[in-house]
């Protein structure tokens, strides 16, 4: 493998090359701490090893008998205290700067979910853009040792976040199910995304390029497989991307009042299922005993559709609510799909987007 | 082990091998395995859990029986008495910390989480939430009414405070060597405790049936029932201790200057009182 | 004082039971030495079990891709490795030392509550059974990390409940053990042994016991809330009901941070005996050692949120917890300096206990410095939940706590077994462990700095080389511990060179005034300390 630009380098031994001012400060802080700690370490253990070599019985050293000295004890309490204060002062400045999320040019809402990220551009150029972003490394590379792993193995996604260079980007983070953490080492950004809460952080990337990070809070079985990719581009390119993305979204948007045929819904539902549900309920619909319930043969899936709509929209136990993630059409499609797949032949076998819209109320 | 010759107590009595600890451990294993199964709806869970709890109780009964016999057999020197005092104090301290965890949760949920959930940023997720203690942002909680301090909790406060007084009277009587009086006031204390628990049970029923206030009523219900529930559980424990002490008083186990069994239970009872005062202020008034 | 003679006379039939043989001796034990031995064996078995889980982790991480285990099982391995090592291996091992040594060091005949002492021990196997058994139930063991963060912990199956109940049991065990230790130390010291004459190991344990009593109930509360959130519809950690997942973290770490000092303070105690013995010079700054230990313990209650810098606390909270955390280096530094001052101008020899003690100081300090670096909020935000943290805590836990336990074994083992261990093998164990330890965990600093997150079943290919080194080191380290069991521990129980009552010429303390191996009953007449 080769280095991954914007991601880790092979045998990288220190922080990423900083791309934001904060990251630069963190980098220097760490260097400073490292130097001070190394100096103390060398001094302290220099003394110890000197003693070990000189004051050993085998070279005939006779033991002294002293066992206290108020003066030195005070000294080595006070001096470390002062050193520690010296370390804390520059750090304080950076902490305060890191927390200042005001005056952002662009605000993006980041939603962590098992196991992908959702992005909604809330404010600034590109407002209204919204998409999901998931791992794009093919599964074969993960499970098949004979497949070569590419340079961006596990740190590549289908839809990267795109932001303009030199603009202050404020992220507001939340999650759908459990806690995740959004991290880009090169920006020195790491912020937990907590279900039901909104937390914020910010960065101002000073160099264009692709920057890579990963989810940094244990979030269940696919924790290692929900990377983050940020594409920092020039203003012009950003404007172009916004236009393109908007067109793409308009093309994809569905009319919630359209009535679909069952086959259309099943086809679309299969894709939705593969993208969102297989991780837990499995492709064969059998789930994982004890952890994730089976859909194949499930009473809820085979019974009346209202309860299933409720579960999918609002979540239940470990199942996250999907109402903020999937469109009406996707939800209708995936429910229809489960009702007609595997051994399931539900009585009420079709759900239309309009019914989902009604159930949301 | 009961038939020791009395003589001067050993410097520090160390009991011989005993089968109770390991049996208690095994019973607890059954209890906990049963509990795990029970909460997950496995059929044998409740049976295992209840058998386990009963086994624990039987073992403890036997175990304390041994200890009482040793004490009555004159094996416990003054030094052992001091050991019991230290250990009871620190046990009560550990209980204080247990409650501190729940009080801390209440404080945090009210003073940190609630305003947080209602701030500007959180309008993104909870547009309609207003920071009122008892409100839940999710809209998934059935409406309920909050529990005020009148009248049951206030009466209960009076009951517990009185029970502290009656217990102290009993203690004075014990020190004066008046066994009958001791037993009477001890009994009164237990009765007050029992009345307290009955009121508490009534209050719970009232909460469930009329206020629609349940364990599932959001963080309000969670903290309300967990705090008062654990307190009630401790009142029950304290009352059981006092009942055992009463039995021992009637058997004539305690002397005016050698009765740590009584004092330990009394300390515990006072601790339970103090926790209640905290609850009364924090849960019902504020 | 003739009371002890009375004792023997009055209860002669007790003494008939006093030496029960076979299984009853262990199951019904009330003797602090037997119970100490039980604790030590239990914890060693747990160390091996937790170690096997670690090796499975390391084997999976040997190269990128999923080769051996599924990611959900990987998370179970990580979680159970952490739980077993913390609650099964390190903590019980120190309690085992306390059982063996505290009565001997303070001249007491036994622990204050002998039966409760046995109960504390016999709660551990049930907890271990619950934990191990949870691997076999549907859904497997809990996989939420040893910290059991909500709301991930509400997603798990029955294995999570078994884990919660196991932790309840272990918590009860720790509380009872601590009450026993406190009572023993406060009430059963030999006449003349004032608190400020008490051996350091007893001091560190006294303070540790207070930490345990203060924080174990809080952990019990936290996991009880998890349990009710899981099954009874409470909303402690659920925002929709007005609760807060971060509240779990606050409560957990209020326990969790003192917990890590619970695992290191007794280690400080052990080392504070070994260094003076082999330097043939009294411990430097005894009083300041006591005060430093107490300061560490007190400070440990106000630093917990340094584990939570990335949850997005207000800036004032971040600063407060950063300052408070950094402050702990000061008393810890005092300890390190005092040890070195004890060595200074001594007449040192380097038998195995001393090697492990010096190794402890050296490597623990590295872990301490990485801790200090993590305490700096902006740096921690960069490194939180990466392998840098994993490196940090294995430096303080393995090369800290575990090395001190090894040192203590070599130091006091002769008193327990009556035989000297084989010095050459002990030295080999030390050097082998020291080297393989560093091979395993040093590269993890680099992985963390480069951004490899922890609790990952698979990783980007750029991280491969350091992971390979770490995995190789881990197997080496594991082999060294098997060697320790087979070549050092077992032989030294069976026989070998007879140990003198005081095998170390520089040693001091009451424990060396009784024969080796220490007889079943010691100090039935309390000795007088001048
Ligand atoms: C034995 C256990 C132990 C010990 C002793 C310590 C000691 C310390 N720890 Fe550690 N820590 C853990 C076990 C331990 N830790 C564990 C298990 C975790 C991870 C938990 C999890 O998430 O799973 C953790 C995580 C952890 C974090 C959170 C990291 C993260 O998740 O982002 C932090 C941050 O502040 C931290 C800091 C410290 C500090 C400052 C000390 C200090 O006490 C160190 C003090 C010592 C020294 C500094 C060296 C000696 C001093 C001198 C020679 C004097 C001179 C020095 C100066 C003047 C600077 N630790
Ligand atoms: C408390 C003490 C403690 C100890 C002693 C150890 C010991 C070891 N730990 Fe531990 N570790 C933790 C506490 C501890 N750990 C904690 C708290 C966590 C965090 C968990 C979490 O994230 O929730 C953790 C996490 C953790 C991780 C990160 C996992 C992840 O994030 O996914 C790793 C990875 O390498 C690791 C490795 C090791 C290794 C190789 C050892 C070795 O030292 C083990 C050595 C022992 C043996 C190997 C056993 C002896 C050998 C045999 C019985 C026979 C077989 C041997 C051979 C064939 C060679 N540990
Ligand atoms: Cu999402 Cu880890
Ligand atoms: Cu900590």
UniProtKB/TrEMBL annotation, chain B:
<feature type="transmembrane region" description="Helical">
    <location>
        <begin position="222"/>
        <end position="247"/>
    </location>
</feature>
<dbReference type="GO" id="GO:0004129">
    <property type="term" value="F:cytochrome-c oxidase activity"/>
</dbReference>
<feature type="domain" description="Heme-copper oxidase subunit III family profile">
    <location>
        <begin position="8"/>
        <end position="286"/>
    </location>
</feature>
<keyword id="KW-0812">Transmembrane</keyword>
<feature type="transmembrane region" description="Helical">
    <location>
        <begin position="150"/>
        <end position="170"/>
    </location>
</feature>
<dbReference type="InterPro" id="IPR024791">
    <property type="entry name" value="Cyt_c/ubiquinol_Oxase_su3"/>
</dbReference>
<dbReference type="GO" id="GO:0005886">
    <property type="term" value="C:plasma membrane"/>
</dbReference>
<feature type="transmembrane region" description="Helical">
    <location>
        <begin position="267"/>
        <end position="285"/>
    </location>
</feature>
<protein>
    <recommendedName>
        <fullName>cytochrome-c oxidase</fullName>
        <ecNumber>7.1.1.9</ecNumber>
    </recommendedName>
</protein>
<dbReference type="InterPro" id="IPR035973">
    <property type="entry name" value="Cyt_c_oxidase_su3-like_sf"/>
</dbReference>
<dbReference type="Pfam" id="PF00510">
    <property type="entry name" value="COX3"/>
</dbReference>
<keyword id="KW-0472">Membrane</keyword>
<feature type="transmembrane region" description="Helical">
    <location>
        <begin position="20"/>
        <end position="38"/>
    </location>
</feature>
<keyword id="KW-1278">Translocase</keyword>
<keyword id="KW-1133">Transmembrane helix</keyword>
<dbReference type="GO" id="GO:0019646">
    <property type="term" value="P:aerobic electron transport chain"/>
</dbReference>
<feature type="transmembrane region" description="Helical">
    <location>
        <begin position="182"/>
        <end position="202"/>
    </location>
</feature>
<feature type="transmembrane region" description="Helical">
    <location>
        <begin position="44"/>
        <end position="65"/>
    </location>
</feature>
<dbReference type="InterPro" id="IPR033945">
    <property type="entry name" value="Cyt_c_oxase_su3_dom"/>
</dbReference>
<dbReference type="InterPro" id="IPR000298">
    <property type="entry name" value="Cyt_c_oxidase-like_su3"/>
</dbReference>
<feature type="transmembrane region" description="Helical">
    <location>
        <begin position="86"/>
        <end position="109"/>
    </location>
</feature>
<dbReference type="InterPro" id="IPR013833">
    <property type="entry name" value="Cyt_c_oxidase_su3_a-hlx"/>
</dbReference>
From TrEMBL, chain C:
<comment type="pathway">
    <text>Energy metabolism; oxidative phosphorylation.</text>
</comment>
<feature type="transmembrane region" description="Helical">
    <location>
        <begin position="38"/>
        <end position="59"/>
    </location>
</feature>
<feature type="transmembrane region" description="Helical">
    <location>
        <begin position="164"/>
        <end position="188"/>
    </location>
</feature>
<dbReference type="GO" id="GO:0022904">
    <property type="term" value="P:respiratory electron transport chain"/>
</dbReference>
<feature type="transmembrane region" description="Helical">
    <location>
        <begin position="283"/>
        <end position="305"/>
    </location>
</feature>
<feature type="transmembrane region" description="Helical">
    <location>
        <begin position="317"/>
        <end position="341"/>
    </location>
</feature>
<feature type="transmembrane region" description="Helical">
    <location>
        <begin position="200"/>
        <end position="227"/>
    </location>
</feature>
<keyword id="KW-0472">Membrane</keyword>
<protein>
    <recommendedName>
        <fullName>Cytochrome c oxidase subunit 1</fullName>
        <ecNumber>7.1.1.9</ecNumber>
    </recommendedName>
</protein>
<keyword id="KW-1003">Cell membrane</keyword>
<keyword id="KW-0408">Iron</keyword>
<dbReference type="InterPro" id="IPR000883">
    <property type="entry name" value="Cyt_C_Oxase_1"/>
</dbReference>
<keyword id="KW-1133">Transmembrane helix</keyword>
<dbReference type="GO" id="GO:0004129">
    <property type="term" value="F:cytochrome-c oxidase activity"/>
</dbReference>
<feature type="transmembrane region" description="Helical">
    <location>
        <begin position="353"/>
        <end position="375"/>
    </location>
</feature>
<feature type="domain" description="Cytochrome oxidase subunit I profile">
    <location>
        <begin position="26"/>
        <end position="530"/>
    </location>
</feature>
<dbReference type="GO" id="GO:0005886">
    <property type="term" value="C:plasma membrane"/>
</dbReference>
<feature type="transmembrane region" description="Helical">
    <location>
        <begin position="79"/>
        <end position="100"/>
    </location>
</feature>
<feature type="transmembrane region" description="Helical">
    <location>
        <begin position="387"/>
        <end position="412"/>
    </location>
</feature>
<feature type="transmembrane region" description="Helical">
    <location>
        <begin position="121"/>
        <end position="144"/>
    </location>
</feature>
<dbReference type="InterPro" id="IPR036927">
    <property type="entry name" value="Cyt_c_oxase-like_su1_sf"/>
</dbReference>
<dbReference type="Pfam" id="PF00115">
    <property type="entry name" value="COX1"/>
</dbReference>
